[in-house]
Amino acid sequence: MLDRRKGPDALVKWVKWSGIISWLLILLILFITSVAKPDFESYMDKSFHIKLQDNWNTDMMHYVLLLLIFLFFFCLISININMMRCRRKSDKFNKTLIFNAAAAFIGILLYLFFFT
Question: Which runs of E-coded beta strand occur in the chain?
Fold first, then answer.
């Protein structure tokens, strides 16, 4: 069969860019989580009586939950678009979206287990 496509259309470009956007969201989630976690007390902190954050910042973790939910649904929508556009043998399926959706789902479950 003759391939009449002239190049990637908007939906194929969407799937490509959604993989990149999902990784950027993962990095943002990891950064906010690292800021929200309790500080580790070192010898210098103890000797100079420096007050450290000793519990999780729950306000920031609410933002993490919202980002995880957004990432999960963003990946699901992009996976559906990718499945609609994968019809030929030369078409590729974006595995990054599946990985990031699974990671977001696990993150949501961990949040619900530890913070509720």
Answer: none
In sequence order, what are the residues at sequence separation of 6 or more whose Cβ sits closer than 8 angstroms to the Cβ of residue 102?
Answer: none
pTM of the model: 0.84
Please give the chain's pLDDT, 116 residues, in tens. Answer: 566 667 677 888 888 899 999 999 999 999 999 999 887 777 877 787 777 777 899 999 999 999 999 999 999 999 999 998 777 666 778 899 999 999 999 999 999 999 88
Residue whose entry in the numeric block shows the structure tokens 């490509």: 16
**Neighbour count for residue 22 (Cβ, 10 Å):** 23
36-70 per-residue burial string, b: 16 or more CB within 10 A, e: under 16? beeeeeeeeeeeeeeeeeeeebeeebeebbebbee
Asked if residues 75 and 100 have their Cβ atoms less than 8 Å apart, the reply is yes
Nearest Cα neighbor of 98 from 22, 10, 13, 6 is 22
Q: How far apart are CA 62 and CA 83, in angstroms?
A: 32
